[in-house]
TrEMBL record:
Residues 255-358, 360-404 form the Hint domain. The lineage of its organism: Eukaryota, Metazoa, Ecdysozoa, Arthropoda, Hexapoda. PANTHER family: HEDGEHOG, PROTEIN HEDGEHOG. It comes from Glossina fuscipes. The chain crosses the membrane at residues 58-77. SMART domains: HintC (SM00305), HintN (SM00306). Keywords: Autocatalytic cleavage, Calcium, Cell membrane, Cytoplasm, Developmental protein, Endoplasmic reticulum, Golgi apparatus, Hydrolase, Lipoprotein, Membrane, Metal-binding, Morphogen, Palmitate, Protease, Segmentation polarity protein, Signal, Transferase, Transmembrane, Transmembrane helix. This is Hedgehog protein. The gene is LOC119640819.
Length: 474
């Protein structure tokens, strides 16, 4: 017999027996079909059939599926900022796509917290903040300066930094072309740009190329996005409008999700501050059907009571206040589509509706009437088994950074499984004294052994930039 010759499954004990998996007769004289001989030997049993699914093969399949889930998904408590661990590797086949007229990036209003943020007030030449504006001098930038006062050369430090990056990108894209600024800081008293325009704070620029070739403006807008401007608008055929966040804006890094003094409702009817929560507490959450339930805390994605961080604070029409980090997912209601979804906190606008747990013990939509940024000390990010949590009566996710609640929840499946295994290992019929002692140990364990982002969240975050498209991330 030659190696790799096709032969039937062979069971030397039972002649004329069919393999139940490949339907091949076990007699050597039967018709040759789908199995192979290895070296010069027949298969000695139908258990050797290649189509036979043994216990070991199931284990291998399960392991491979779990590995794939862990590698291609990620979710994080409000973990590290945009760069951590390894740098993001740019796709060598990437080709920037020009913007079209009336398109703006991101696709939200300019003065929302997810874009350039709200106006902080106009800056005049005699204002104390005028000293904070930077005079720009560059061989790669042409300034129109139609006022003749040099006003177009003044801008915030963040705006200058992004403009310098864009100027180099323009030279690289079109070697004989330079960036042209037609409007930057404006000191006119008539508010021609609109009273709350960011031009009056030096946080906005209107740009073209110095050859005024309008066919380049779509690509110029894309280059501005890649240079790091917080809001880019291909306003019309005459120019591109770009703006940035305030210099006082603090980019979140290693940030927790909620303030330490945020309040949650526990299963025994009492309330607790975030800083007092321990693993095993059952707190008010939301199930897949949008119904309030109590869910167990299985770990803390992030916990640092001494860290000072910047938060988004939203207030509803009936007074509910939620304070979370910008990249945190919050549950909102779309009345037109009659659909609930999760969005990043800094993309919520005043017209949006969030879910509030009211006195009827139900979750009802309430309109957001106020949005602001605040700085607080202490960050806590508990993870419940349900993946959701109701904080200060407002429904929110336990996840951040990734813009999919389902994807984030799946990526934490190994930790939920591990928590279930641990719960089965401990008997439930313990005395009150034993339960009290267990809670004390859990509190000490959280306080002593965790200060910062949980190791599992860090591991997931490390691979995030390699496996998730940029459109899926904050």
């Amino acid at each position: 017999m030659k190696q790799n010759q096709r032969v039937p499954c062979l069971n030397i004990e039972i002649a004329e027996h069919f393999c139940s998996d490949c339907d091949i007769r076990s007699n050597v004289n039967s018709e040759i079909r789908d199995t192979y001989a290895r070296s010069n030997f027949y298969y000695l049993s139908i258990l050797c059939c290649l189509k036979r699914k043994t216990i070991s093969s199931y284990l291998r399949y399960s392991f491979h599926i779990l590995l794939i889930i862990c590698l291609i998904t990620s979710a994080f408590g409000c973990g590290p900022g945009r760069s951590f661990g390894f740098s993001h590797r740019r796709n060598l086949n990437y080709r920037p796509k020009p913007l079209v007229q009336k398109e703006h990036v991101p696709n939200i209003p300019e003065q929302t917290l997810g874009a350039s943020g709200v106006s902080e007030g106009a800056i005049k030449r005699d204002s104390p903040n005028f000293k904070k504006l930077i005079w720009v001098e560059s061989d790669y930038i042409v300034f129109k300066d139609e006022e003749g006062t040099g006003a177009d050369r003044f801008m915030s430090r963040r705006c200058k930094d992004k403009l310098d990056i864009l100027a180099i990108s323009v030279i690289n894209q079109w070697p004989t072309t330079r960036l042209r600024v037609i409007e930057s800081w404006d000191e006119d008293g008539e508010y021609l740009h609109g009273k709350n325009s960011l031009h009056y704070e030096g946080r906005a620029v209107d740009i073209t190329t110095d050859d005024r070739d309008t066919s380049k403006y779509g690509m110029l807008a894309r280059l501005a996005v890649e240079a790091g401007f917080d809001w880019v608008y291909y306003e019309n055929r005459d120019y591109i409008h770009c703006s940035v966040k305030s210099d006082s804006f603090h980019t979140p890094h290693d940030s927790g999700c909620f303030t330490k003094d945020s309040i949650v409702l526990t299963s025994n009817g009492s309330t607790k501050a975030m800083s007092d929560l321990i693993i095993g507490d059952r707190v008010l959450s939301v199930n897949d059907h949008g119904e309030p339930i109590f869910s167990e805390i299985i770990l803390f994605m992030d916990r640092n009571l001494e860290q000072t961080e910047q938060f988004i604070q939203l207030t509803t029409e009936k007074g509910a206040v939620l304070t979370v980090t910008p990249a945190h997912l919050v549950m909102i209601w779309n009345p037109e589509k009659m659909l609930a979804s999760y969005v990043f906190a800094d993309q919520i606008t005043r017209k949006d509706q969030v879910f509030v747990h009211d006195f009827t013990k139900a979750l009802r939509p309430e309109r957001v009437i106020k949005l602001e940024t605040v700085t607080r000390k202490g960050v806590v990010a508990p993870l419940t088994r349900a993946g959701t949590i109701v904080v200060n009566s407002v429904a929110a996710s336990c996840y951040a950074i990734v813009n999919s609640q389902k994807l984030a929840h799946w990526s934490l499946a190994p930790m939920r499984l591990w928590s279930s295994i641990l719960s089965y290992m401990h008997p439930s019929n313990q005395s009150k004294e034993t339960v009290k002692e267990e809670k004390r140990k859990k509190r000490l364990a959280v306080e002593e052994y965790q200060s910062g982002v949980h190791w599992y969240a860090k591991a997931l975050y490390t691979i995030k930039d390699y496996v998730l498209p940029i459109t899926w991330r904050h």
